[in-house]
Structure formats: C-alpha cells, structure tokens
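Margin note: ligand = glyoxylic acid.
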Amino acid sequence: MHRPHIFVTRTIPSEGIELLKEHCTVEVSPHDRPLTREELFAGAKDADGILSLLTDRIDSEFFRQAPGIRGVANYAVGYDNIDLAEALRRGVPVSNTPGVLTDATAEMAWALLFSACRRVTESDRLMKSGMWKGWGPMQFIGADVTGATLGIIGAGRIGTAMALKSRGFSMKVLYADAFRNSTLEDTLGAQQVSVEELLAQSDFVSVHVPLMESTRHLLDRQAFGSMKRSAYLINTARGPIINEADLTAALRDGEIAGAGLDVYEFEPKAVDGLSELPNVVMTPHTASATISSRTGMAMKAASNLIAMVTGQRAADCVNPEVYQG
Ligand code: GLV
Ligand code: GLV
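Resulting structure:
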C-alpha cells in the first residue's frame, strides 16, 4: 500500500513525529522558524497531508499549490490561520488539538493576571537593575485578586478552566457567551451577562473567544472606555480580538490599569508604543508551552493526520461537514 507522505512545517515534540512515522513517510521542515510561502508550497507540493502551525496560512493559494492534500492537522486549538470554507469546498478535513492545552492556557492567563496586578515584571526589572533603595510603603502598589470580580469573555473549555481556578480567591465570576454554562453557574454561582455589562463590572477581564469575523476587534477604544479605570485585561486567545492600537492608547492614558498579553494583533510584532508601557506584561504566545501540553498537541495532531490520510474520521475534525459529502 502507498505510504502517505506527510509534511510537518516545523519541529514538534518527537512523540508526534514517531507516531506519524509508524504509518507515513514524514518530512519535517529543516528550518526552526516559520516558513516562507514558497517554502510552505514546496514542502506540501507532493504531500498527502500537512501538519501545520498557527503561523502557516492555509488558504486557497495553498490548496492550489498542494493539490494532493487530503488532511490538514493544525498544531493548535485555534484554527483561524486556515480557510475552512475553502478546505470544505475541496473536501479536505481539518483538525485542531482541543483539550490538551486547556489547563496550561488557563494557567498562563492566571500568570499574566497576577504579574500585571502585582507588578511582578516591573519589580523584577528594578531588582535586576540594582537600583532598589530598600522597602517603601508606597512602592509597587497593585490590586487585590481575592474577592474581586472576574469577567470571562468566551466560556468554552479554556474560559471555563480559567474561571474554575478562581475558587481559591473567592471571586465573583461573570461570563459572556452565546451559550449558558451550567458548570460555571452551578460550581461558582457565575452569572451570564452581556459583554457590555461584563466590561463595566469586572476588575479582571480575560478573553477566551476564538478569532472569527464576529470577534475581530471585539475590544476597542469604546470597550476600554467602558471598563473600570482600575481594571486589568488579560488575553491568551488571539491578538486581533483586541484593537491593539486602541489598547495601547487606553493603557497609556490610564483608561484601564493594566494588561497581560500572550497574543498580538500583528505577531511577531507589537504595535508601536505598547512594549514601552510599564503597565503591560507581555509573553510571546507561549500559553500552551508546557511539556505535557506540547506533547499532547503533537500526539493529537499526528493521530488526527493519520486518520485523515488513511480515509478515517479524525477525532478532532473542525469541519465534519466534509464527511457528509
Ligand atoms: C495556540 O495559540 C493555540 O491555538 O493552540
Ligand atoms: C478552546 O479550547 C476553548 O474552547 O476555549
């Protein structure tokens, strides 16, 4: 039988590659960096399946250049880098990696929340500069977490995990989502509210919606204007959900107290002025970067891809309509 040929666009944990090799011929990009369009097309040209990253744009041009592709396994839970409509039109199944990075991402949201409100990175910079002059009653005053109001925008897997981890801090939890979340309501007494109400009432707003046309720039100058001046914004979802220039202005002008960001509108760049602000804590899209998450993502992407190129149904298919055709 023909062994399916797989192109992996960048090195991932070896467990995933080993699993793929049991069933397929595997080519891994030799470059430890995002591929150029030409490199992506050249690698995928004769492939049956591709293991893609969120930095690879999988669009109609890609499918034209790689006509043999029978499956796209994205190494991420988000899949806004993939033109799903085009994949569906061509009957190509696409998968993601849900579940294995839920806690890691929620934990990073908490890390950013605490770093921002207790000014951890600002303090770290002072200590390392050797300029600390000793204890002072007015130094690095931040905000309390215990008893504060946490607002979760998008109560899916990750938003739910973020909210559930607030139990140790006796927080009031609000969430905005199209669906009711009975886990949050029953466990935390959380209340479902509109985005507007959530913004107005929360001390901490954490974003967990996927990037779609309806969520692009969901948070803009008007949204920041409606938040408390003492509030913090946390984003571990996707950068373009926030108008980053507006956020930079809001942080600079003190419309909100601070932000913790793992994702950016124009990765790998941040908009001008953002990184100079003292009240923003920034990490380089590493919320899922733990050993178990990344290994889990590699195993999921590999098993989904094996299923797709051998004509079986992928467990984490995000366009299951392809199977109805
Ligand atoms: C990372 O951003 C992911 O979507 O998994
Ligand atoms: C993603 O995994 C989510 O549902 O939040």
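The first strand starts at residue 5 and ends at 8.
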